[in-house]
Amino acid sequence: MITTKKAFILLKSNLSRKFRVENNNLDITHLMSNSNFTIKKISDIAEPHRIERNRKETKESEIKYVQISDIDVSLGRIKSYRKFIGTNAPNNARRIMNYGDILISTRRPTRGAIVTVPKEFDKEICTVFFTTLKINDWEEVWPWYLSLFLRTSLGRFQFQSMITETAYPVISDDDVLDIQVLIPPIEKQKEIALNYNNSIKIYFEQLNNAYNSLIQSKQNIENYLLGEEAETIEEIKFGLDIEELEDEYDDVSSE
């Protein structure tokens, strides 16, 4: 028997193209039984919320909107957003996100589009295609640690085991709640998150130093060959600045 999350009618001839057997072969029993960490399911430490903006009250308000493509999957940070007046916002721009919420993409979840909401996006809007988790107790689980854990191979493998659709891999809020998490002491969680943030800062410092050295070498060549006619090569500053985008928002298919 095949069970689905939504009821619909499908021709038998289309069945093989629409579904594959759910991959429930992931066995992490040995890893968990030999771990020195506390082990809990997400359902024990957090809950998803679906708080949505009031469209009438926000129809004249300016909102910042974050969708899946705005997440830097390499760094686990919000890299961009769009601004809309409420009446002009896309249909999916409904979910309110709060500082410390964890956004988890339910579309292609193994890509790692997972982020903890920073203060500058508190009470702003994200797409409904995120599972939006609220940690029950920050003294038990540090939100920035949990988002980092979910981006590890263990988190990715658990997401992979839950994906059922082949054409466009998706998971549900209930799937997210079933994921098991390794939980170190809270101070260690904070240390892990802090070390990660410091590593990112060092990465950009070194990247900028290397790029500036390259630009200077190019400028020296330009000056030597062309003298007063040499053009000035502009420097580029790499960092974690969040870009406000002016282009059109993505539709459902790109989410």
Write the layout of secondary structure elements.
Elements: H1 12-18, H2 29-33, E1 38-41, H3 42-45, E2 46-48, E3 62-66, E4 71-72, E5 77-78, E6 80-85, E7 93-97, E8 102-105, E9 114-116, E10 124-127, E11 130-135, H4 143-150, H5 153-162, H6 173-177, E12 180-183, H7 186-226, E13 243-245
Parallel strand pairs: 3-10, 6-13
Antiparallel strand pairs: 1-12, 2-11, 3-6, 4-5, 7-10, 8-9, 8-11
Keywords:
255 residues, alpha+beta, Adenine-n6-DNA-methyltransferase TaqI, Chain A, domain 2, 2 domains, five-stranded mixed beta sheet, four-stranded antiparallel beta sheet, 7 helices
Describe what this molecule looks like in 3D:
This protein is an alpha+beta fold and 255 residues long. The protein folds into two domains: 171 residues, Alpha-Beta Complex (Adenine-n6-DNA-methyltransferase TaqI, Chain A, domain 2), CATH 3.90.220; 53 residues. 31% of the residues lie in helices and 20% in strands. The strands form four sheets. Strands 7-10-3-6-13 form a five-stranded mixed sheet, with no helix packed on it. It starts with 11 loop residues before the first helix and ends in a 10-residue tail after the last strand.
Q: Give the biggest sheet.
A: 5 strands, mixed
**Mind telling me the CATH class of the largest domain?**
Alpha Beta
The SSE string, one letter per element, is HHEHEEEEEEEEEEHHHEHE
Q: Which strand order spans the largest sheet, edge to edge or round the barrel? A: 7-10-3-6-13
What low-confidence regions span 5 or more consecutive residues with pLDDT below 50? 15-22
* % residues in beta strands: 15-25%
What does the overall shape look like?
globular
Mean pLDDT: 87
Q: How many strand units?
A: 13
The CATH architecture category of the largest domain equals Alpha-Beta Complex
In the CATH scheme, what's the topology name of the largest domain?
A: Adenine-n6-DNA-methyltransferase TaqI, Chain A, domain 2
Based on CA atoms alone, the radius of gyration comes out at: 22 Å
Q: Fraction of residues in helices?
A: 25-40%
Q: Which structural class fits the helix and strand makeup? A: alpha+beta
Q: In the residues, how many domains can be counted?
A: 2
CATH superfamily of the largest domain: DNA methylase specificity domains
Number of helices: 7
Give the distance, in angstroms, between the N- and C-terminal Cα atoms. Answer: 30 Å
